[in-house]
Amino acid sequence: MNYALWFQLASPEIVLSISSLVLLLIAAWGGVQSSRLVSILTVTALFGALALSFNFLLNPSFAEGADAFYGQYRMDRFASLSKILVFLSAIGCIIVAPKFFARGNLMRPEYPILVLFATIGMGLMVSAVDLLTLYVGLEMQSLAAYVLASFLRSDDRSAEAGLKYFVLGALASGILLFGLSLLYGFTGTTSFIGIQTAFGDGVSTGALFGIVFVLSGLAFKISAVPFHMWTPDVYEGAPTPVTTFFATAPKVAAMALTMRVAIEAFGGQQAVWQQIVIFVALASIILGGVAAIGQQNIKRLLAYSSINNIGFILIGLATGTEAGASAMMTYLIIYVAMTLGSFICVLDLNDREGRPVEEISKLAGLSKTRPGLAAALAVFMFSLAGIPPLFGFWGKFVVFDAAVAAGLIPLAAIGIAASVIGAFYYLKVVKVMYFDEPADVIAPSDSAARMALVTLTALFVSPLGYFATLALSPVTAGAAKALFWAA
User: Fold this and answer.
1) Which of 361, 347, 344, 349 is nearest to 461 (CA)?
2) What angle do CA 243, 332, 213 make, to 5 degrees?
3) Alpha-carbon distance 141 to 126, whole Å?
4) CB 114, CB 122: distance < 8 Å
């Protein structure tokens, strides 16, 4: 037992845990007036965890990864890359929040602290190699998320979103926990590698039910069809900074956890779960595209866009190959940039009285009143649609390429055809902004931080993003390889 190594491996979560306890004391003593200080210190702590994760990603000493706490926690390149995405998303969501909450003097120090608690849970999720660590990390993230969804206590929509998320989340957690108990009962172990070894001689009927229940619970967390029902309502009702957070960091953590469970725990029985993943992927792509067409609220549209994109990412998982896992990580990186940028644009849509504007019809003529914001939002819409030469096209391309290489040509063909559905509702937003008569509802921006983040993310998803593939390709390939170390 090397406790020093164990604590070193878990240093990002340890730093965030200590920081969160200190910040809780500051918030308790300082009250509402400490909101700005707590936000700054939270971002500082996240940058510290980010630096530690970068060290694990780039340090050759950790290229093979290492286990800690008796094989319950693993830090490898896959976990470190996932944590980098989670931490960057959390930092962005904290930076853009104060202006939104300042409108009603609603900013409280609990917001960044709750984000921090959720981030600690997500760090555990992506490093989990044991069913116990999986559940603890997932519940820690979920409990903080329920409170965040209902953060605006005086807003009926926010309270409703929090209640819906809590009730459906509790149901999903029960389904997941039942599946975990079945897996333990029929394999005699909670270790991912132990489960894979137990499945070496085949999967019993009871264990098969366990796999189905576990994948169902995880499908809820990534808002994949048919467990997506909470997503549009929660995204619309929750405060927009919280929705931005839900659409980025937890999606990365839940998808990374799903990848690790499928490949490390169930990897020896790909034929058992592949058909489930293929169905969920196609259903998410098609329903996410079709249901978004009639949406009039930009946040609900982006919620269905999130479901649609999760379907494309799951195509990479269906391959069960290193190339597919690498493509998923590439897509996740691009997805985070596109989604973060899109929601920050939505955050900047306010009328003259400072009230948020969410109706798509009120974006009419935005290209004439706010040309910079309209251009950025158009870039994100085109990129989410996967239209070349924007970087979003590359995410879809690598996923489809991995599917074709794995022999899943029909799956790739259906996915490509279904992409056309999604392009319609993205182009509808662009059409309203550029070709409709100006509604002149949107006021000028009052946040330099938002504009800076929008500019950075827009440049990343522009054709300039292809230059990043020179660095991203070996990193995502290394992360994918770390998942298959026991294969």
Assistant:
1) 344
2) 75
3) 12
4) no
Is-above-0.90 flag for pTM?
yes
Which parts of 103-239 fold into alpha helices (H)? 110-127, 131-149, 156-187, 192-198, 205-221, 231-237
Judge contact between 198 and 188, C-beta under 8 A: yes
Q: Where are the domains of the chain?
A: 284-486
Following DSSP, what letter does each residue of 112-133 receive, concatenated?
HHHHHHHHHHHHHHHHB-BHHH
Region for residue 407 given its phi and psi (left: phi exceeds 0; alpha: psi -120 to 50; beta: otherwise): left
**Torsion of Cα atoms, 128 then 134 then 140 then 146, to 10°:** 130
The pLDDT tens digits for 233-278 are 999 989 999 999 999 999 999 999 999 999 998 877 888 899 999 9
Q: How far is CA 130 from CA 135, 192, 228, in A?
A: 9, 6, 26
Both tokens assigned to 61: 């000493």
CA distance 159 to 148: 10
pLDDT per residue as tens digits for the range 100-126: 887 777 788 899 999 999 999 999 999
Is residue 399 within 8 A of residue 316, CB to CB? The reply is yes
